[in-house]
Amino acid sequence: MWARLDDELLDHEKISTAGEVIGGRNGSVIALGFYAQCLMWANRHLSDGHLPQRVVKGFRHGSNPLSIADALVKAGLLEKNGNGFVIHDFTEFNPVGGQGEGETAEGQAAQEGERDAREPPIVSGTAFCRPWRCPQWTRRGKVGFRARARA
Length: 151
Prior knowledge:
The chain has 151 residues and is an alpha+beta fold. The longest helix is centred in the last third of the chain and has 20 residues.
């Protein structure tokens, strides 16, 4: 799964506001990291932007994660609900309810087709193997090379 972050988030007013509320020299950095952690958790667990309070308490991004979450609430990045927090406008910018998983599988198939067209196979006799598909390949090269037979 993936999380979508806009590159303008680094200079966003809400991150600056949350950083001021958190205080200290690294307040904005803590706010940005905490917000990114919230997005990643929500996407991994397909929670549609909902963050239970017990989960937020478990974030190890600062000495008091609930106070950091409250700073993000004051800045408008998070909203409080009955049992925790909700990421503001999450469903407008992120896949909802596992929607991204299907899109990811389709996207992977399309990318593999593009790679096949772009890069020639590594040939060894009558067998071939593409490094990104063969578990025998590492960053250092082939290890115990066993290529798949050409169909």
